[in-house]
Design brief:
The complex is a heterodimer of chains A (about 725) and B (about 550). With about 725 residues, chain A is of the alpha+beta class. Chain A contains 23 helices and 22 strands. Classes of the chains: A alpha+beta (about 725), B mainly alpha (about 550).
Chain lengths: ~725, ~550
């Protein structure tokens, strides 16, 4: 159902370079290629309609109906026509209209029930994880007592060992363990949780696989992450969002306008010489009030949240989803979001009298013992650019491999009395000098030049019969992920500014920013800088979205309008943000923005469609009501509907069926493509405005044709 | 030259004149309402009324100013009419009855100028000049003031302050309406309109130069000056019962065209004022284009239905001439009719009741749209901006952002106020019309039966609730029922929407601005203009479709 990314966590982050890179996302292979990260169509199965029918009938309770003002009016209308039909039981027309009005209400409820049903399945899976656990509470004297997980209080310390289910949300305060979080993330590979740092948060309901940790409980039972998730996906915690409230107000006022138009009609009709029955008046009213959008509004909202859940993002409020659509500034971490986690070798630069090929050969040889991504990239470059076949360690005999370590920051090989080394500039220079060699001047110069261009220089040195010397420099650079440039271009067209956040120096940052095509960058960024940037953008009226995972990101996450916390992050970060990404994939921020926009577009499109529909309904109903007394009005019967009864009935039936017809669209959302507002408006206006004007003329006519085949009506 | 060509040429001349006046007048108005200097005569007025023109007002204070001033205006005008019998210079007319005095007082204060009296047989010089003419100036100035307050709401940020009502009111009168009306009055006098304080003349009745034996009365009066502000302030209350069809008010085809120009010039120019004040003349052009499209479309339709109507009499006459002045012809009368009903003027140079069925419907629909194309002085602009807010809200969602207009978010509070605004007039029109049709007596006022009779009543409530003031001649509106209910419609139709407009202005002015990006709905583009026209026609048109079907449509399609 959902797309999962594969996530591997390594206990240690291995670096072969002197420049520390921000670690947390460095080894997140992105499951989605950026170009595929479109807001796609959700799945819609017609069987869901049948399955949700009981719920749809349960929602006929007036206490539930009253929450949707438009549909409540239809509900009252249905009751009225039914009552009047009982008074005149021989009138088939009243019964048929009543039946279709009730169907209209049921269809609206069905839309909501289907939308909710999709969350329920997810909630059930989560509930399974929430079995009652027995916690081992640590007492002050060091002994343990067994208590029920539900009796834990904030601040309690509990012990978990291999095989234990973690009893509540908290932070690891002691120890390190691998934890199976598949209950929440759906990802089966275990993750590491350890005290201190940015990976200390654990979630209740997940399982410790190895080792022993002590956890400090940070949430009350019943309010844990898993509880909130269940509430969210079930829609129990759903509150109407600001825009939804505003739209409801507009729809309510349109309903009042049409209520007035219908309620004031009887005396006018009496004067004209025709009597309007209650059934006909209610039918007219229901056709005119914006039932289509009124029926689908809440389904659209639930489905929007659901689309996020399907992408493994939990929004803590619908408000955040809406805000995502409004975002005009995106703060993106460089590492893991814009660039691949690791720097890669880009070129070999010879120094002294050596040739490029010699450098490539030595670099490859010395990197065979370096299993870090950077080391591998040297081997790959040597193969791709200089055609050097990768040698396997077994091919060479009598050699001594010197593996890369974080202390030596060098790797290499000793073979046939020849020593080859590759590593961070400082380490290699020290090694050459230790071997009694000298360092060529241009080695320093080239290394500096690479640094200035935003890259990282690695030196390759050799100690052989000619003495110890530097052969050349490997240029390591950040590699911008495929398709990011196009992605940022799209964002720009959508009016969204991207700001790259990096700990690199301004020079390096600028080089990468230019290459990736982001609009702006923040170099040597501290949490305070981030916070200041967000406040500055917000002061200009912009809405800001960001991702973060560390405790020091928490204030900025709270300040941002859309703060997406990584699930791997600390509980402070998760508390502060208003969304949590279970996949911990920062690129997803872009998708979140698209989903937010899609939610608003779907609402607007269906509102437009709903209002535009009224024109045709008037042309069906007004001649039907009044052509008998004012024959000229028959000229308005442009659809050539067969009889007055059939015309009114066709309009009512169309009005009901269009709701069911649009359920898939309201659940999937209107197709969204990142183009400028102008083009988007033109497209949607054509489809939903013009389409909404024309479609009912065709639909009502078709229904009328079918009805007129029934003997006694046509 | 055929009558159709003549009509089209007059229309073109009118458009050219309006285009020429647009930039200078629009810019001048923006300067008037943005300047922080006071003229000497204004300072005297402020001193006289005890107002500090430099205090910034939040919306409740601004509204209190509007309401206090208007209540005082109604009371004064009511008393003046009730006391006419004892006032000097009243040509011997007696005091006006309470219900008619209430109706007339409300009518002139609300910029409606619905008249249930015969000007030349009821109102003397004092009431005409000290009462009615004064309200013609100030009611128009109040409208502009409220519109300017709303524009300031869009233009300002992080403040709730909307300017000073007294300063806006006084400036509107002193710097805009009085000078323009003075020039216009001179032009009208030059055309032949009368301007004197003479009494009533008994003259003989003649036909083709031969005495018919009987006699008739001719009133003198300060007609040209009244006429100028009547059109310029989109008031519409005629000195004479025949209104602008009367040769003393509107003597020649040129004066007729000039009067149409006066009706339209300020409402159109205010769109430039709006553009300048919000910092983008293009936004003003978009609103202008919306207004212009509807106005031109309605005028073309009106000319078409009046010229092309079938039937032997029409074909011989070359159009639907009944109720139209031969001096002006079908073309100019059609332009006047749409201009007066698409603004809140209500002056007439021909009788809307005598227009073809569809023509009458076009006049009705013009008012039903809320008189926003270009609408009354000020009221047209704020009415149109409210519709723009509604259109932005619906369409804005379709670009995937919380809707915003001119850098202000259209949130729950804003949409609540805009939605309330658009509810007021339909509620008044429909509810009162339904009651009038349901009760036994009001229908006695109808002259006609059938659909046309119904149109008379629908027209009356539409005209009053939208503060237009024109009548579907035929209805006897001087009854207690009509004087009272139409008076209520005018009061509620004017001031309840103003409450929502000013509250909206206050709410907008408090917001911080949202900067425009490529993702923002471009409200200065033709696409938006088209959308706005569509939204106006569909939302307001649909409200009245059943009522229109039973009146003008039933008649016009028969």
């Amino acid at each position: 159902m959902t797309t999962r990314t594969t996530r591997r966590e390594k206990p240690e982050d291995s670096m072969s370079t002197a420049t520390p890179t921000r670690a947390p996302h460095s080894d997140v292979p992105t499951g989605h290629k950026p170009a595929q990260g479109r807001v796609g169509a959700g799945l819609f199965d017609p069987k869901q309609l049948v399955k949700s029918l009981p719920d749809a009938f349960r929602k006929l309770d007036p206490r539930v109906m009253v929450k949707s003002p438009v549909m409540f009016v239809v509900w009252i209308g249905s009751v009225l026509t039914t009552v009047f039909s009982f008074e005149d039981p021989g009138d088939w027309f009243g019964w048929v209209i009543s039946a279709w009005l009730w169907l209209t209400v049921v269809f609206a409820n069905l839309a909501e029930a289907v939308a909710e049903g999709r969350g329920k399945a997810q909630a059930d899976t989560l509930r399974k994880a929430k079995t009652d656990t027995v916690a081992r509470r640590l007492l002050e004297n060091g002994s343990e007592e067994r208590v029920l997980g539900t009796d834990l209080r904030i601040g309690d310390l509990v012990v978990c060992e291999a095989g234990d289910v973690i009893p509540g949300d908290g932070d690891v305060v002691e120890g390190v363990a691998s934890v199976d979080e598949s209950a929440i993330t759906g990802e089966s590979a275990p993750v590491i949780r350890e005290s201190g740092g940015d990976r200390s948060a654990v979630t209740g309901g997940t399982k410790v696989l190895s080792d022993r940790i002590v956890i400090k409980i940070t949430t009350k039972p019943g309010e844990t992450f898993i509880d909130r998730m269940i509430n969210l996906v079930e829609g129990a915690a759903r509150q109407k969002t600001p825009n939804e409230i505003a739209l409801n107000i507009l729809l309510a006022s349109l309903t009042i306008v049409f209520l007035l138009a219908c309620a004031t009609l009887p005396p006018l009709a009496d004067y004209a010489g025709t009597h309007l029955t209650m059934v006909v008046l209610v039918a007219l009213l229901v056709c005119l009030i914006p039932t289509t959008i009124g029926a689908l509004l809440s389904a659209i909202g639930i489905a929007g949240m659901d689309r996020l859940v399907q992408r493994n993002v939990l929004a803590m409020s619908g408000r955040a989803v809406e805000a995502a659509g409004d975002v005009s500034t995106l703060l993106l971490d460089k590492t893991g979001t814009i660039t691949l986690g690791n720097r890669q070798a880009a070129e070999f630069v010879p120094v002294g009298g050596t040739t490029e090929a010699e450098v490539a050969d030595a670099a490859q040889l010395s990197s065979l013992a370096d299993e870090t991504p950077e080391g591998r990239s040297v081997v790959v470059l040597a193969k791709e650019k200089y055609g050097l076949r990768e040698r396997h360690r077994g091919e060479l005999v009598g050699v001594e491999w010197i593996a890369f370590t974080a202390q030596t920051r060098m790797s290499g090989v000793d073979v046939d009395g020849r020593k080859v080394r590759k590593g961070a500039a400082g380490s290699v220079i020290a090694w050459v000098e230790r071997q009694g060699g000298t360092v060529a001047e241009d080695a320093d110069r080239i290394a500096d030049r690479i640094s200035e261009a935003g890259g990282t220089p690695l030196l390759v040195a050799v100690d052989d019969e000619q003495g110890a010397r530097v052969l050349g420099v490997i240029h390591l650079k950040d590699v911008v992920k495929d398709g990011m440039r196009e992605r940022f271009e799209e964002l720009r067209r959508m009016g969204i500014k991207t700001v790259m956040i990096t700990g690199d120096n301004p020079l390096t940052a600028k080089a990468i920013a230019d290459e990736a095509g982001v609009d702006d960058f923040l170099a040597e960024a501290t949490p305070e800088d981030k916070m200041a940037l967000i406040k500055r953008e917000q002061a200009g009226g912009k809405l800001v979205a960001m991702t973060g995972d560390g405790t020091n990101d928490a204030p900025a996450l709270a300040q941002a309008d859309v703060g997406v916390a990584m699930n791997t992050g600390t509980s402070a970060a998760k508390e502060a943000g208003n969304m949590v990404d279970l996949d911990s994939n920062p690129t997803k921020l872009i998708e979140i923005v698209e989903i937010g926009k899609q939610l608003l577009i779907t609402r607007g499109a269906l509102t437009t469609f709903s209002i535009a529909n009224d024109v045709a309904k008037y042309f069906a109903i007004i001649p039907a009501l009044f052509a008998a007394v004012h024959p000229g009005l028959d000229k308005l019967n442009v659809m050539g509907l067969s009889s007055p009864d059939s015309a009114i009935l066709s309009a009512v039936i169309f009005n009901a069926l269009i709701i069911i017809a649009l359920v898939p669209l309201s659940l999937k959302g209107v197709r969204y493509r990142p183009v400028s507002a102008d083009r988007m408006l033109r497209r949607n206006l054509t489809i939903y405005g013009l389409g909404g004007l024309i479609a009912p003329f065709i639909g009502i006519k078709l229904i009328d044709l079918l009805i007129s085949l029934i003997p006694g009506i046509g | 030259m055929g009558p159709v060509l003549a009509g089209v040429l007059q229309l073109l001349a009118l458009v050219a004149a309006l285009a020429l006046a647009y930039v200078p007048l629009g810019s001048y108005l923006a300067k008037v309402y943005s300047s922080d200097r006071h003229w000497r005569v204004e300072k005297w007025i402020y001193k006289g009324i005890g107002a500090d023109p430099d205090t910034e007002m939040r919306w409740p204070a601004y509204l209190r100013g509007v309401l206090a001033f208007s209540v005082a205006g109604v009371l004064f005008l009511y008393l003046l009419q009730r006391l006419q019998g004892v006032l000097p210079g009243s040509l011997g007319f007696s005091s006006i009855d309470p219900d008619q005095a209430f109706n007339t007082a409300v009518s002139f204060v609300t910029n409606t100028n619905w008249q249930s009296y015969y000007g030349e047989q009821a109102m003397g010089h004092v009431v005409q000049t000290a009462g009615l003419a004064v309200q013609n100036f100030v009611s128009a100035a109040v409208g502009i003031a409220v519109a300017v307050a709303l524009v300031r709401g869009f233009a300002r940020s992080r403040t709730g302050e909307l300017g000073n009502f007294w300063a806006d009111l006084v400036r509107g009168v002193v710097r805009v309406l009085v000078p323009l009306a003075a020039v216009a009055a001179v032009v009208l006098v030059a055309c032949g309109a009368i301007q004197n304080f003479s009494g009533i003349h008994e003259v003989g009745q003649f036909l083709d130069g031969h005495s018919m034996g009987g006699s008739q009365q001719w009133n003198g009066g300060a007609v040209a000056s009244q006429e100028a502000i009547k059109e310029l302030g989109t008031n519409g209350g005629g000195y004479f019962n025949a209104n602008s069809a009367h040769p003393f008010e509107n003597p020649t085809p040129f004066s007729n065209l000039f009067e149409i120009f006066l009706i339209l010039v300020i409402p159109f120019a205010l769109t430039r004022t709006f553009g300048l004040m919000v910092g983008s003349v293009k936004q003003g052009y978009a609103i202008l284009a919306t207004m212009g499209t509807i106005w031109l479309g309605f005028t073309a339709l009106m000319m078409w239905t009046e010229f092309a109507h079938h039937g032997p009499a029409f074909e011989i006459a070359g159009g639907a001439y009944e109720g139209k002045e031969v001096r002006f012809g079908v073309g100019a009368s059609s332009i006047f009719a749409t201009s007066t009903t698409l603004t809140s003027t209500g002056a007439v140079d021909s009788f809307h009741s005598s227009f073809t069925g569809l023509g009458g419907g076009i006049a009705l629909l013009g008012m039903m749209l809320g008189e926003i194309a270009p609408g009354g002085t000020g009221s047209g602009l704020y009415g149109m901006l409210i519709m723009a807010v509604i259109a932005v809200f619906i369409a804005g969602l379709m670009v995937g952002r919380t809707p915003e207009y001119l850098g202000k978010k259209i949130g729950t509070r804003e949409i609540k106020l805009a939605a309330c605004y658009i509810l007021v007039t339909p509620a008044l029109v429909l509810v009162f019309t339904a009651f009038a049709m349901a009760l036994p007596t009001p229908a006695n006022s109808m002259t006609n039966s059938g659909a046309h009779g119904f149109s008379e009543i629908l027209y009356a409530y539409t005209s009053a609730s939208n503060n237009n003031g024109s009548a579907f001649a035929g209805l006897n509106a001087d009854t207690q029922w009509f004087n009272t209910t139409l008076g209520l419609c005018m009061l509620l139709g004017r001031f309840v929407p103003m409450v929502f407009v000013l509250a909206l202005a206050g709410s907008l002015a408090e917001q911080k601005p949202v900067p425009a990006t490529a993702g923002t709905l471009r409200t200065e583009k033709p696409l938006f203009t088209g959308l706005l026209v569509g939204a106006i026609l569909i939302i307001t048109g649909l409200t009245y479709f059943p009522a229109l079907a039973l009146g003008p449509l039933a008649e016009g399609l028969a």
